[in-house]
Design a protein that fits this description.
alpha+beta, Glutaredoxin, four-stranded mixed β-sheet, two-stranded antiparallel ribbon, 13 helices, globular, disordered N terminus, binds glutathione, Glutathione_S-Trfase, GST_Omega-like_C, Glutathione_S-Trfase_N
C-alpha cells in the first residue's frame, strides 16, 4: 500500500497490482529520463508517483493545523466572486441556479444554512451535506451517514475533486461552505461571511414570503455596529476556539483562551441590556455568534480545551442561545450528531483514538424570557 511519511516521501506504491519500492521507482525514473518514449511502464509509474505526491501534499496540509510557532492561523478563502440581483458581477441571482456545499458540523457552513432558511430560499438554493467525518482526503460525500447526502450536482466523492475541477493545481484548503453556480459550472465563493451577505441581500426576488424578503441581517443603520461586533467576535470567539484547540504550544493556547473568555464576558455584558447583539433586531452578528456558541458546551469545552466556563454558566448568553435556537432557521439547522462526531472523530492530532464523548445533555428548548424582557 501507499505509505506517506512526513516530508512527502512516497515509500512504496501499488502499481499494476504490485508494490513498487522507492528503489524500483528510482530506476524506473532513470529509465524515463533516458528512454522517455519507449518505456511506457516507467512513464505510467511516473504519472502515478506524481499523482500520489500531489495527494500526499494535500493530505499533509490537512493533517497540520498549526504553524511552527504552535499558533493556528486560518488561511484566507480562495474564491471571492459575488452573486448580485442585477447580474452586474457576472453571476445573476436566479432561482435554481446556485448550490451550497456544506457540512452540518462546520460553524462557517452553518451560517449559510441559517441565512438560507431565514430568508426562505429553500426552493431557490439547493444544498448537499458532506459526511461528518473528515479523513485524510478531506470532506467526502457519504449518504450512508444520517443527514449526509451524495454530491447531487457533480457526482463527486470528495470535496477536493470540486476544487481540482476548478484548478488542477489548486493548492489551498478544500473547505466548506462552497457556493456553486450550476450554470457556469464554477465555484462562486467559499467564504461564509460573504455568502451570508449574498443570501441576505441579493436573492430577495426568490424568498418564499414578502416577510422573509424584508428581513435584513445587515441593515444600513446598524452596519457600523455590526462591523464593530464582527471585528472582535471573529478573532476572539469564532476563530478563537480553533486558536485554542489547534494550538500546539502552551503560550498560543493561553493567549487564545484568555482572549476567548474575555470576549465571552463582553458578550455577556452586552446581552444583559439587549435581546440581540445590536439591539432589538436580529443581525448577521447573531447568526455568526450562534454557530460557535451552540457548539461550545458540546465540543469546544472538552475537545478544544475551552473549559474555563461553559455557555450555560453565563445567564444572559444561555438565555440568548435558547432564544436563537428556538427561532425558525436556527435549531432546525443544528445537527449535534454531525457536530459531536466530526470534531472528536476527525481531529486525531487532538483526540488520537477518535472517541466521541457522551455528553453533556443540554436542553435548548427550555423557556427563556428574553422576548418579554426586552419587548418595547
Ligand atoms: N473562511 C472559511 C473557513 C471555512 C472552513 O475552514 N471550513 C472548515 C470546516 S469547519 C473546512 O472545510 N476545513 C477543511 C480543511 O481545512 O481542510 C469560511 O468562513 O467560509
Amino acid at each position: 500500500m501507499l505509505q506517506v511519511f512526513s516530508g512527502l516521501v512516497v515509500d512504496s506504491i501499488v502499481f499494476k497490482g504490485a508494490s513498487i519500492t522507492r528503489r524500483t521507482f528510482a530506476s524506473q525514473l532513470k529509465l524515463v529520463r533516458t528512454t522517455p518514449r519507449k518505456h511506457t511502464d516507467a512513464r505510467c509509474a511516473l504519472t502515478a508517483l506524481k499523482k500520489m505526491q500531489k495527494e500526499a501534499k494535500s493530505d499533509a496540509a490537512i493533517l497540520q493545523f498549526a504553524e511552527k510557532t504552535g499558533e493556528f492561523k486560518r488561511k484566507p478563502s480562495s474564491f471571492r466572486n459575488w452573486v448580485t440581483a442585477d447580474g452586474s458581477s457576472g453571476f445573476k441571482a436566479e432561482s435554481g441556479r446556485y448550490h451550497l456545499y456544506v457540512s452540518y458540523a462546520c460553524p462557517w457552513a452553518h451560517r449559510t444554512l441559517i441565512g438560507r432558511k431565514l430568508k426562505g430560499l429553500e426552493d431557490a438554493i439547493s444544498f448537499d451535506v458532506v459526511d461528518y467525518y473528515m479523513g485524510e482526503k478531506g470532506w467526502r460525500f457519504n449518504p450512508d451517514v444520517p443527514g449526509a447526502t451524495p454530491d447531487s450536482v457533480n457526482g463527486f466523492s470528495y470535496m477536493r475533486e470540486l476544487y481540482f475541477k476548478m484548478n488542477p493545481e489548486y493548492g489551498g484548503r478544500f473547505t466548506v461552505p462552497v457556493l456553486y453556480d450550476k450554470v457556469q459550472k464554477t465555484i462562486v465563493n467559499n467564504e461564509s461571511s460573504e455568502i451570508l451577505r449574498m443570501l441576505n441581500a441579493e436573492f430577495n426576488a426568490f424568498c418564499k414570503s414578502p416577510e422573509q424578503a424584508a428581513i435584513d441581517l445587515y441593515p444600513e443603520p446598524l452596519r457600523a455596529e455590526v462591523d464593530a461586533l464582527n471585528e472582535w467576535i471573529y478573532p476572539s470567539i469564532n476563530n478563537g476556539v480553533y486558536r485554542a484547540g489547534f494550538a500546539t504550544k502552551q503560550e498560543p493556547y493561553d493567549v487564545a483562551v484568555r482572549e476567548l473568555f474575555a470576549a465571552l464576558d463582553r458578550v455577556e455584558a452586552i446581552l444583559a441590556g439587549k435581546r440581540y447583539l445590536a439591539g432589538d433586531q436580529l443581525t448577521e452578528a447573531d447568526v455568526r455568534l450562534y454557530t460557535t456558541l451552540v457548539r461550545f458546551d458540546k465540543v469546544y469545552v472538552g475537545h478544544f480545551k475551552c473549559n474555563k466556563k461553559r455557555v450555560i454558566d453565563y445567564p444572559n448568553i444561555w438565555g440568548y442561545m435558547r432564544d436563537l435556537y428556538q427561532t425558525p432557521g436556527f435549531g432546525e439547522t443544528t445537527n449535534f450528531l454531525h457536530i459531536e462526531h466530526h470534531y472528536q472523530g476527525s481531529h486525531t492530532s487532538i483526540n488520537p483514538h477518535g472517541i466521541v464523548a457522551i455528553g453533556p445533555d443540554i436542553d435548548f428548548t427550555t423557556p427563556h424570557d428574553r422576548d418579554t424582557r426586552f419587548s418595547s
